[in-house]
Amino acid sequence: MINIALCFENEAELSFMYMELGICFDRRGIDYNINCYRNTAELRRGIRRRFPDLFFYDIMGEYGLIRMAALSLKEINPKLVSVVFQNRSYIKPPNDALLEPLYTIPNKSRKQLWTYALLAYEATLDKENTFSYYKRPSYLHAPYDSIKYFVSEGRRTCIVCTDEAQNNAFYKKLSDVEALVSSKQCTFLRIHQSYLINTKYVAAYNRSHVMLTTGEHLPISKYKYYKEVCNCIAEKKVRCSYRLQA
User: Fold this and answer.
1) How far is the C-alpha of 156 from the C-alpha of 47, rounded, in Å?
2) Which residue(s) pair with 4 in the sheet?
3) For residues 73 and 124, what is the distance between their CA atoms, to the nearest angstrom?
4) If DSSP states are collapsed to H, E and C, what string results for the chain?
5) How many other β-carbons are positioned within 10 Å of the β-carbon of residue 71?
6) What is the C-alpha to C-alpha distance for residues 224 and 230, in angstroms, rounded to an integer?
7) Nearest Cα to 147, choosing from 195, 115, 194, 183?
8) What is the pTM of this model?
9) In whole angstroms, how large is the CA radius of gyration of the chain?
C-alpha cells in the first residue's frame, strides 16, 4: 500500500490530481490510498492519522507555507518523495536540496502526471541495494550488485545482469534510469548515449572501449565519457595499451 498526500489550494488542481492518480495506479494494479488537503492546517491534522510516502503539492502554495510543510514532513520521514508542477516564477532556495528526491512536472497534462507519478512511486520502492522497474503485469527488483549495465533500446531500456534470467527490457528512457540510480548508487557511469555501466564490473578500459570482468566489450562514444571513466576508476582498473575489439 502506497500512501499519497495531495495539498493544493486550487480545487480544480486537487480534483485533477486525485482523479488522474487514481486511474494511473489502478491500471497498474498498485494498492494506494490518497488523502486530499487544501491547506497546511488540514495537512498537519491529516498526517497524524496517516503519514504519506508520496507528497504532491503546490510548492508556492500559501505563500510558501506548503513548501515549509514539505520540509517538515521530510525531516520526519527522510524517504518521503515530493512531486510538484513547474513554476517559472519559482526561485529555488538553497535548502530545496533537502526535499530530494523532488520531481518537477513540466506541464499539467495526464501524460506528464502519469510519467512523474510512476517515477516517484518507483523511487519509494527502491531499497538502497535494489533497482525496481515495471514490466507488465508487476514491478520487478534486481540487486544493484547483480547489474552489469543498462542499454538503451529506443523507448525501452534493457537491464543486463550476471544472471541472464534477470535480463529484461522495460519502458523507460536511459536518462531516467541514470537519474534514478545515481541518487542511490555511485557505482554507475554513463559511457555512451546507449550504455550505463556498473563500474564494479570494469576490468580494463581504453579510449574507445571498456572491458567487463564478464568478457563483454562496450563502446565509449565521447571523449567526455572517457575522461569520466579515467576520473572514476583509473586508480582501481588497468588502462589497456592496446585497442579492445568490440
Assistant:
1) 37
2) 34, 54
3) 15
4) CEEEEEECCCHHHHHHHHHHHHHHHHHCCCCEEEEEECCHHHHHHHCCCCCCCEEEECCCHHHHHHHHHHHHHHHHCCCCEEEEECCCCCCCCHHHHHHCCEEEECCCCHHHHHHHHHHHHHHHHCCCCEEEEEECCEEEEEEHHHEEEEEEECCEEEEEECCHHHCEEEECCHHHHHHHHHCCCCCEEEEECCEEEEHHHEEEECCCEEEECCCCEEECCCHHHHHHHHHHHCCCCEECCCCCCC
5) 14
6) 10
7) 195
8) 0.64
9) 21
Cβ contact 242:206 at 8 Å: yes
Distance CA 241, CA 139 (A): 43
Q: What is the pLDDT of residues 184-217, one digit of tens each?
A: 666 899 999 999 999 999 988 898 999 999 999 9
Q: What are phi and psi of 32, to 5 degrees?
A: -150, 165
Q: Which residue has the cell 576490468?
A: 203
pLDDT digits (tens, 9 = 90+) for 53-101: 999 999 999 999 999 999 999 988 888 999 999 988 888 888 888 898 8
> What is the maximum alpha-carbon separation in the chain?
66
